Amino acid sequence: MANVTNWIDHLSAEEVVGAVYPGAGSMEMTLVIIGIVLWLGWHVLTAKSESDELERLSRKRHGANDHKSNITDW
User: With CB atoms 3.0 to 4.6 Å apart as the test, which of 27, 28, 44, 66 could cross-link to 23 if both were Cys?
Assistant: First the structure.
């Protein structure tokens, strides 16, 4: 195992110049696009499930005082 005593010399050496970690420069945009797609998908799924839940609750037509009867599915 090699010991590095001077990082500036090490990172400017010919065999190390460029990427310090694997995939540098090639994976960032792919990961950003995947992250945005997952983020948008999560929002779409959440909005759909919330609207389904609200629609289901609105069909029950609870009264103004039903919460006093300890209805658990309020």
Answer: 27
The CA distance from 43 to 62, in Å, is 28
Q: For tokens 């009264």, what's the residue?
A: 63
State the virtual CA torsion across 30, 31, 36, 41 in degrees, nearest 10. 100
List, in order, residues 6 or more apart from 25 with CB less than 8 Å away.
Answer: 19
Task: Single out the residue of 74, 51, 50 nearest to residue 63, CA to CA.
Answer: 74
Averaged pLDDT of the chain: 78
Helix (H) or strand (E) holding 32: helix 28-60
Q: Which residue has the higher pLDDT, 74 or 56?
A: 56
pLDDT of residue 50: 94
Q: Is 22 a residue whose pLDDT tops 70?
A: no
